[in-house]
Structures
1.
Amino acid sequence: MTTPQLRDHPAPAPAAPVRTGGHLRIGSALALPVRRISVVVALVLLVLTVLGAVATLSLGRLGIPLDELPGAVFGSAEGKNRFVLGRLRGPRLVTGIGAGAALGLSGALFQSVTRNPLGSPDVIGLASGAGAGAAFFALFLPGSPVWLGALLGAALAMAVVYVSTGTGFRNPGRLVVAGIGVAALATAFTQYVVYAVERDNATALTAYINGSLAARSWDHAVTIGLVLLVAAPLTALVSRRLEMGEMGDELAAGLGAEPRSTKTWAVLLSIVLSAGAVSVAGPIAFISLTAPQIARRLTRGTGPHLFLSALTGALLLVLADLAAQQVPWFDNLPVGIYTMAIGGLYLGYLLTREWRKGNL
Amino acid sequence: MATTTVARPSGAGTSRAGTARRVSALLAGVAVLALAMAASVMFGSRTTPLGDVLDVLAGHGDPYVTSVIESRYPRTVLGVLAGVCLAVAGTLMQGISRNPLADPGMLGINAGASASVVTATAFLGATSGAETVWWALPGAILAGVAVYAIGAAGSRSGGLVRLVLAGAVLSAVLYAYIQAVTLSLPKVFDSYRYWVVGALAGRDMEVFWAVLPFAVAGLLVALPLAPGLNSLALGDESASSLGANPAVIRAAGLLSATVLSAAATAAVGPIAFVGLAVPHVVRAVVGVDFRLQLVFSALLGPALLLLADVVGRLVLRPQELMVGVVTAFLGAPALLYAVRRMKGTS
């Protein structure tokens, strides 16, 4: 449904009538509409993430003492500190931040397209598909780029879901059930691949199925950094159109944001971001489900909250990985098990809430 | 959901042609199961010719072949038992909830049984395979009740998607718990690794005898329910006017399905999608009469499970792939097919 006479007169670009609050001015040319609460929430999330990062680097027997930390990070680290920062925890931390941000973004994009919290990459099989692809490339085709496998796996999983619902991504009920089926299929495939190659390596199996940040190198951190570098600007471009889309397809079309192409772009970006995160950390569960929802609740606003979702995702994964490294009794569990437990409970809460409102 | 499958009144359709068709379908079902059982005994890391197998059964086989067969047959027997339980449980659940997606694996029952067994092994010192049955059962029942309580709470429209989601949530949380415990306690991990992934391998007849009473009890409750399920398919009001009590039928069916799934899970670990896929195939073959559906499920369920097990032995020869992985491969497409045929749930 397009309304040509309206498209000839697009709404003036800076106007954002639904928003209240000030503008973020960069020079005199650029004024971004920003709600004050979003800025506060972003700052709080940022501070918490930094605190989580400091704790990650300094806690435990091998931790870098707090008074030596600034010197080690900003100056040069020596001896044990150098090893811990450069090899042991530094790459792991940066990879976690990047993967968390990518997952948060990816979830926000997809949830915005499906207009449903359950239409999130980890519920509908995208992450499992990426995990299966990554496992296949890593184990059957050694030397091949793992991210390519993750990308192909994710795309294939989404194609299967799209086709098997018969209604695309529109009907949340069908989407979720088809996604659960595709996720089961992808997980079975991953199990097959891992068993075929690393039969008696149980840790490898759980890492490939649950996602893990153990033993990351700077290569992983660079990979996810590049993915974010490419995808984030595109995401920012698509973000405004998505916001219009949340007001309804027809209104968005009237404002000049063709809903079909907007959604296609958002889904593609979501796949790329998820695949990037999975290729460096495995299919970590429920970050992309929970991060956008938490961001939305914190600001009590509408819209996809892409930037805040990314921050929330990074914070969640840093905290989960901190738990994975420091919780005493469960020695070095893959971080995906923590996110699965906590995210699963959150999903349960979300479901009962949606049901009360009669949305599903 | 049930509007697509309107049951015939139980008296109808007993024409001579219909009877002939059913008898031939029944024979075909028996033949398929027999083939699957034969394949299950014949194939392994080395293939044993059927003639040798028959010699052993007749009591005068080569001693080496005899020992090979002896190591394989508990697997076949357990596969039959678990397959019957899972398929009948799936048929019951799909009939009761009028939900083509109901499956003990998807509704959290498998995860409940697994979590319970892992808890017992890790903290309460349960060891033997037979003992685990007693732990799997309460876990399965608790999980089943929880999923139904969450999924059906305040439901106006049957709650199809809700049940599946509630099952997914519960499974995710329990799975995380299972992983946390098994990875932290290597001893538990070793003894329950195969159990948790679902495999017919490495189990003995002791497990079979321990599980058998539960399976038989579940089946004894299930089979008499068939006429009731037929009238239930017409809707609660019609069922009541036909003299059936919908509440009683549902409760008995759920109880039976839970006990059957718990028995199967206790015996061979959590195996998904057999209970989902088999009823769909059965409906396509014999139609909507639950009396026939239950019987055919009991034939095709074990056939599917055994064939999946054989496939698992052959694809990674001389190693093996767990049967649970193979059934997910075979069953998930059935799920996707069912989704395509779902009617307007939103």
2.
Amino acid sequence: MQSNNVAATIRQTLASGREKTSPYVPAAKRYGRSTASWVFHYLMLFGLAFVFIYPMLYLISKSLMQSSDLSDASVQWIPKELNFSNFKYAWEALDYLPKFKNSIITSLIPALVQIASCAFIGYGFARYRFPGYTLLLGFLLFTFLVPPQTIILPLYIFYSDLHWMNTYFPFVIPALFGHGLRGALFVMIFLQFFRGLPGQLEEAARIDGAGALRTFWSIMFPLARPAMLVVFLFSLVWHWNDTFEPSLFTTIADKFNLMQSLKVMDGQSQLQLQNGTAAMTGDLTGLVPTFANRVMAGSLMTILPMLILYLFTQRYFVESVERAGIAGE
Amino acid sequence: MKKGLSMRTRHYLEGYMFTLPWVIGFLAFMAVPLARSLYFSFSKLEIKTAGLQAHYIGFENFRKAFTVDVDFTPKLMGTVSGLIFNVPLILIFAMFTALLLNRNFKGRMIFRGIFFLPVIIASGTVLTKLREDGAANLPIFKQYDLASTLSSIMPVELVRPLLGILESLSLSMWDSGVQILIFLAGLQSISAHLYEAAKVDGATPWEIFWKVTFPMITPMILVNALFSIVNSFTKAGNPIMDYIMDVLFKKNDFGYGAALGWIYFLVSFVIIGIVLYLFRNSLRERG
């Protein structure tokens, strides 16, 4: 106990001089911790990380299995033989490339549009006070809170009247006005970010004769890169995974995105399963064939593009979240 | 071009210019649809050749939801009780994880990457699929036959809800990626001087957490609570949401569906109101 404290004090003294300059070093490091504390820390981390990685492992393991492996009690995680036939099947069943293209269009374009529009609007909310400001801010919060189901029917009628069904407009046009999927949240993220920036930059630009728009686009917008990255990734992933709006506004199979296609594939395999079990009612082995492996392979393939993107951006993403200060207030 | 205007008018005009797109969008994609759905909820809608025809029927749809419809009320109660249960769980778990990640240790970036993974996969179809397939039940519980072990040491009435929590634990955990992120950002913004001052005054880590860390991240708890509530009210696989979509687009009972949507909205609003009330002190302090 005693020696531990001494060691901690020494470590602390050594560390304090070096680390005072960096504000981002967590407090824990500065006050040395006991070994037991670190063991506990890593144990907790590994335990939790396992829970988080579990669904991924599950997806990968199941999608590599054959139907015989699924009903084999001796097979838990490792398939008896390495076989990629499920992926081949899913590739065709999902109609991958055309649906991938649709997914890209209905998520990449809204995400990029939301960056621009939500930054513009967020800047207005962050830097200007005008009559009706509080009311508008209240509306912004309100918009965030309204469940989309409440207004989905009028929106559906509205978009039908505009002949927007089976086009990309329902995803892009609301985004253009800072709405669309969680638009209000993204406006708030930019609002928070711009509030945190010092005002001197703009004052300098204004004194040099730049107008409000010019100041925004050439000075403030480029500074918002951390917030942009956060909004871009969230928007892209949420649009990519969304089936609620696409299932209403996109009814032609050709225009389906990957997630809708996955739902179709899942439905088909359930159907095959029912037919299959109906055909073998005479079979008393109790073994029910499932196509879960194929659906898991399909699931993995639909989220794979996002996983790859995340792999490359996660470093910047996490740092950006810290810097963007999305939790500022 | 605005030479003749006073500084203040010009400031106002620029403010309106920046927020105008949002206001237009709000009217077109929020206010008008909301008003229309309110109107629908008090009407009986029929599809005629001339389009949708609405007859005013007063509170009939709302009465039907709570008296005639046997499916709606249990589903609503289920969603609300699930929410009351899960949101605190998510908050505690997310804060705990954020505290773990906030330390400086080897492999920090890798662990962070892992903990935000659910943000990528935990929304939508894939997660629903995984849950149906039983991936949410961690093998640990099955292997050690937790149910019988627990029932041998405590009353059955306690075991069942406890097992329920454990089973939904991994699901709540996968739902907390964004919340961990927000807590972590909040923890990072706490000034190191506060910790130093507390340490100099001889505070234990336990005291430091409750007297420094916790008060400093109270606003983040509010943000996270709101986010979790909104998220669980709107996420895919929510039974109420599926039910409303069923009524609207399969049974084509538009007026009734609109009424259900409004009831749902009001319930979520009341819950959010309660949360804001609970946090009123922290809100007032910040003005």
